[in-house]
Amino acid sequence: MKPIHLTCIIDDDEIYTFGVKKMLESLKLSKEIKTFSNGLTAIEWLKSSLEHQDPIPEIVLLDLNMPIMNGWQFIEELVEVENPRKAEITIYMISSSLLEEDIERAKQISEVSDYIVKPITLDQLSELFNNQ
Amino acid sequence: MEKHFLDDQENLRKTIDTIPVGIWHWYMDTGEEWWSKRYYQLLGYEEGEIKASQKVFEEQIIHPEDKQRVASSFFKEMEEGESFRTRLRLKMKSGEYRWFLTTGQKIEDSSIGNLVVGSLVDIQDEVELQEDLERSELILKETGKIAKVGGWEVDLQEQRAIWSDEVYYIHELEPGTEVSIDEAINYYHPDDRDRVREDFRGAVEDKKPYDNIYKFITAKGNERYVHGIGIPIENENGEVITVRGIFQDIDERKRAELLMEETLAIATEQNQKLINFAHIVSHNLRNHTSNLEMLVDFALNTTEKSDRDELLEKIGQVSENLSETIVHLNEIVKVQHTATRHVDRIDVTQNVMKILDILTGDFRKSQATCEVDLPEGLSVYFAPAYLDSVLLNLFSNAIRYRSPKRKLRLNIWHEENEEYVVLYVKDNGLGIDLKKYKNRIFTLYSTFHSHPESKGVGLYISKNQIESLGGKMTVESEPDVGTTFAIHLCKN
After folding, report:
1. Which residues make beta-bridge pairs with A112?
2. Which of B71, B186, B358, B483 is the most buried if burial means most Cβ atoms within 10 Å?
3. Hey, are the CB atoms on B290 and A96 less than 8 Å from each other?
4. Helix B305-337 / helix B458-468 crossing angle, nearest 10 deg
């Protein structure tokens, strides 16, 4: 299995980010990993990367509840962006929210490929990346 | 005509007997009586079956309860030479009593002496009808009183309104007071007058009945809810000539209903708060436990000492976060469930000055200025500990989220209305885009600035503290201009 080029983790929880990064490294699933602690810094970087033909992530692991800009708002902003390269990005929502309405809402959004409840396991991660 | 039929005495008697009226004579000199054939028949007897006499009348015919009244009235009128007329109960041959009307007139010095000539008419049916009517009226009136419902009628040709007594009572007016149609409409609450006019117009012009609830102000200035029904009545040409209706005081019912709605809203809100809280608890605890699970899993699968040390440090971090979360949740539970909060009359101005004093160091460090425009002795009814906590939170927020472009300037002033003292706290700091975040500013774990001390707990707790004591907290803000918080504190 070939590792993907770039993975993006958007989450305000440092420990979780540390853990996922460690798992991705141990499975050699991604050559590069970028982390953001909220949606705003992430969307700003992503918009600029799309615009400037810089590398964009094939996979985004997006948290729901974050300060400043949460996961829903991140998606809303991304939907507004018009750029054909957007299609290369697969977004997974990863949250500890078990609320039915959150899960349903995520399913309604075509940009979101799946909703995964934390904690995410090694097996789940490798499955996500193998589907790529 | 030469000769008249009635000239003959026998003919006259026959004619009299065809009238359904009994005739009686009472000869004052002898005490003798004469009763006509019809008189006997009215009492159920054959002519002459019993002796016509004062004694028989008093002992067998007249109702014992009427005897005294009739006799005294009769003799009084006779003495004064007036005609006599009264209602009385007489016993039939069958033994039952019926109501009769009797009249009498004294005739003096006739060919056969002084006598009284009288008549007797059966009025049992009329009396029964009248009794029924009175009974129905009484029932209607009593029912109306209990149900606080009355009837009304507007005669459109005469432009005149007729109200039942109960309608007057609901207006708190003396029954019978003259009220014009315009005056009647002015008893409704200003908010509802147009609606009443429109409903009434619809009944008159479009023949449309109506059935509505209105706010109403009585003659004594009391506000009530009333239920009004109006029905157009048409004449044979299909024109509306009268509007008739019902008017009911439903104040108690309506107010109970409103209170119930309010209570339900409170319960629903409380429920929503509980659900949110449960969600927050589960969400925040899950975050930490899933992190712990993950870290422990890593630790078990590594043999490197340096890796283990790093993981152990992270586990320590998670455990700290977990404690902090539990402290936050504890604080929230305390606010929401302290039934016996120590509530007292407190001086807002003094408390504001006290908290500013505590923060003097921070104000000086950031070169902030603060302008307080509050009168002395501004008092509210609130929990002192909560007010301190709310003020401390707002002032610290102002310092924490000041703009790097300008020195912080804090303005504190107040407004007052019947119910609340409204305390305003305005800063010229970073501000919040309320269009984007309007639903989130007071929710738990919502932060808007990437400040290391942002936890998203303070405003949530402040708002809960204020609301738990009947107050309100609102906010206005513009990014890069500043934020104004308005705290509504109950005066009583």
Report:
1. A91
2. B483
3. yes
4. 20
Do B225 and B203 touch, CB atoms closer than 8 A?
A: no
Q: B302: nearest CA in chain A?
A: A26
How big is the CA angle at B413 (ends B410 and B418), to the nearest 5 degrees?
Answer: 150
H or E segment to which residue B67 belongs: helix B64-80
Strands B22-27 and B113-122: antiparallel
Banded pLDDT at B113 (limits 50, 70, 90)? confident
Interface of A with B (CB under 8 A): 13-16, 18-19, 22, 37-38, 65, 67-68, 73, 96-99, 118-119
Burial of B198 (0-12, 13-18, 19+ CB in 10 A): exposed
What pLDDT score does B221 carry?
93
**Looking at the partner chain, which of A19, A68, A118 has a beta carbon nearest the beta carbon of B295?**
A19
> Residue A76: closest CA among chain B residues belongs to which residue?
B436
Q: Where are the beta strands (DSSP E) in A30-118?
A: 30-36, 59-62, 90-95, 112-117
Mean pLDDT value across chain B? 86
Q: If you average pLDDT over residues B461-472, what whole number do you get?
A: 84
Give the per-residue pLDDT at A93. Answer: 92
pLDDT score at B201:
93
Task: Tell me the count of A-B CB pairs closer than 8 A.
Answer: 54
Does the beta carbon of B42 lie under 8 angstroms from any beta carbon of chain A? no
User: CA–CA separation, B21 vs B119, rounded Å?
Assistant: 6
Do A22 and B298 lie within an 8 Å CB cutoff? yes
Q: Which is more confident, B340 or B465?
A: B465
B477 pLDDT more than 50:
yes
- Classified as helix, coil or strand, B237 is coil
From CA A21, how far away is CA A27, in angstroms rounded?
Answer: 10
Instruction: Tell me how far apart the alpha carbons of residues B284 and B330 are, in angstroms, rounded to a whole number.
Output: 13
> pLDDT tens digits for A1-30?
678 899 999 998 888 999 999 889 888 888
| Structural contact between residues B382 and B472, judged by C-beta atoms closer than 8 angstroms | no
Q: Is B201 helix (H, G, I), strand (E, B) or coil?
A: helix
Q: For residues B388 and B391, give the distance between their C-alpha atoms in angstroms, rounded to a whole number.
A: 5
Q: What pLDDT, on the 0 to 100 scale, is given for residue B339? A: 47
Q: Is the dihedral of CA B341, B342, B347, B353 positive or negative?
A: negative
What are the structure tokens assigned to A36, written together?
């953001």
Per the CB < 8 A criterion, the answer to whether B249 and B226 are in contact is: yes
Q: How far apart are CA A102 and CA A78, in angstroms?
A: 18
B79: Cα within 13 Å, side-chain hemisphere: 6
Q: In the structure encoding, which two tokens stand for residue B21, read together?
A: 């009226």
